[in-house]
Amino acid sequence: MKDNITANLTELHGRIADACEEYDRDTNDITVIAVTKTHSAAVIRTAVAIGLHNIGESRIQEAEPKILEVGHIARFHLIGHLQTNKVKKAVQLFDVIHSIDSLKLAREISQRAKELDRTIECLIQVNVSGEERKYGIAPKQTIDLVNRVNDLPNIELTGLMAIGPHTDDEDDIRTAFQHGRKLFNDAQSVVGRQFDQLSMGMSNDYPLAIAEGATMIRIGTAIFGARQPL
C-alpha cells in the first residue's frame, strides 16, 4: 500500500509542478489535501508518514472513528456538506471546515466553537457551476455571506471553496473556476489579506484549478486509487 501511494504522490507532485510552470504559479503556494473518504485509518497513517499533513474527509459519521483512532496526527479538513445537527461533532473533530453555505450554519459553528473555547478556520462553499445537485451559496449571495460570517466570533474566515462542473469540457471547467477566483478576489477586498485560501480542484481537474488560482486542491483517487469500502 505504501509503495503505491508513494508512487502516486510522486506522480502527482510532478504534474503539479508541470501545471505551475505552465501557468506561472509557485508550487509552494499549492496545498494538497489528501482525501481519504472511504479509505481506512491505516491509509491516513500511511499518508501522514509519507508527508501528507492535510487530510480531507466528507462525512462526519465515517470520519469520526478514523480520526479518533489515529488522533490529531494531521490537519483534518471537512470538505463535504455539513448539516447543522452535526456541527458539534464537526467542530470537535476538524481543524478546517470548507463547506459553510448559509448564515444559519455559520452561526451554529460559531456557537459550538465558543462552547469548546476554540476558533475554527472556515471557508465558504460557492456553487460556481450552478448545478442544482451541488451544495454551496449562490455566487450573487457570496459577498453578503462573507460579510456576515466574518463578523461572527470563534470563526476564522480564510477563503472560498468551489467544485467544478461535472463535465469533460475544459472551457466550462475553467469558466467556473474563473468565477470562483473573481469571487475570491472580491471577498479578499472585504476581509483582508488573511482571506488567502481558494480551495478548488480535484483529481480530475486540479491542473485547471491551479491555472485559475487555487491554493488548495482536494485529491483522493490520484493518490489512493479507487475508493474502497471501509
Report on the biggest sheet.
8 strands, parallel
Q: The CATH topology is what?
A: TIM Barrel
Helical fraction: 40-55%
User: How many structural domains does the protein architecture include?
Assistant: 1
Number of strands: 8
Shape: globular
Q: What would you say the CATH architecture is?
A: Alpha-Beta Barrel
Main sheet strand line-up = 7-6-5-4-3-2-1-8
Using the CA coordinates, give the radius of gyration.
17 Å
Annotated CATH homologous superfamily: Alanine racemase
Structural class by sheet pairing and helices:
alpha/beta
Structure description:
It is a single chain. With 230 residues, the chain is of the alpha/beta class. The chain has a single domain, classed as Alanine racemase (TIM Barrel). It has helices at residues 2-22, 41-49, 60-70, 87-93, 103-115, 142-150, 170-191, 206-211, 221-224; strands at 31-35, 54-57, 75-78, 96-100, 120-126, 155-162, 197-200, 216-219. The relative contact order is 0.16. The model has no long low-confidence stretch (mean pLDDT 95).
What's this entry about, in short?
The protein has 230 residues and is α/β, with parallel strands linked by helices.
Label this structure with key terms:
8 strands; 230 residues; alpha/beta; 8-stranded parallel beta sheet; 9 helices; TIM Barrel
Topology:
Layout: H1 2-22, E1 31-35, H2 41-49, E2 54-57, H3 60-70, E3 75-78, H4 87-93, E4 96-100, H5 103-115, E5 120-126, H6 142-150, E6 155-162, H7 170-191, E7 197-200, H8 206-211, E8 216-219, H9 221-224
Parallel strand pairs: 1-2, 1-8, 2-3, 3-4, 4-5, 5-6, 6-7
